[in-house]
Amino acid sequence: MKIEKKDEQIKYLREAILCITIATVIGLIVYQIFLYFKIAIFGWNLGLIFAPLIAGYTETILARKMIGESIGAISAFILFAYTTFYSFILKNTALGLNIITIVSIIVILQAAFPTLINYLIIRIGLGTLLYLIGIFKKITGYIYNKIKSFIYKYILKKPVKPKIIEKYEFDEMKSNETINSLNFYFITSTDVLDKNVTNLGQFNSTAIVEKATIKTPPEHDEFEQETLYKLKKGKDECLIKLVNKIKAAGGNGIIGLDIQYSSIGISGDNYQVTALGMGIYLK
Description:
The chain is an alpha+beta fold. A hairpin with a 2-residue loop joins strand 1 (40-41) and strand 2 (44-45). The longest helix has 43 residues, at 114-156. Strands 3-5-6-4 form a four-stranded mixed beta sheet, with helices on one face. It contains seven helices and six strands. Helix 6 runs parallel beside helix 7. The protein is elongated, with a radius of gyration of 35 Å. It has two domains: 2-112, no CATH class; 166-282, CATH 3.30.110.70.
């Protein structure tokens, strides 16, 4: 078993070296073609980028066919080292670090470690950019609000109008009027004095409310306002459902009314509003 394993390792190593060698040769040929035809932009030969990229791509294709897996685009590193030495040290020692070398490094790393580089660029890089944009927006928003407050207070001499999110605006007065018109008694206490009460049993109702959308960058005031609107709307919907249930059972009120809010879902994507209490008929 050890001999077979050793033979497999030698075979794997030979095939890997062959893939790297072929890809490196192809990369060198590509680089020489770019040099010969002087394929460049603003004086920078594009072979610096395309030679390592083609070498890494060729090696990956060969390795997958011969070995069955990628071996890390080693030829791309070899081509990068060669092109860097040839262009920036041997031919022109004054160039140093520049945009071409930076792009070449990114291309090579992308070929060798695609998952890691994509994570760093997309998740960390983009996340950092959005975070900085969010800070900038907070600073400008703070300055804007201060200027606005000054104008309203000392020039217009009237209070600042609160910002209203029309999409999630909740008409609480209209909702209260609807609930008050139900001809129903809402009593949070269980003690009803001087009343003839018929107990109809426990009742409950629920309403599911989607959580507010978190903006990118975050807008905490809008998030809180949207959440408040949705919870108020869910609460009133829940009460109306409860009233309809109790009325259907011949009742006209509820005692010990309790309203509960909880987060539900695998990742807490929704709120659940629950209203419960003892349904009664008051004479």
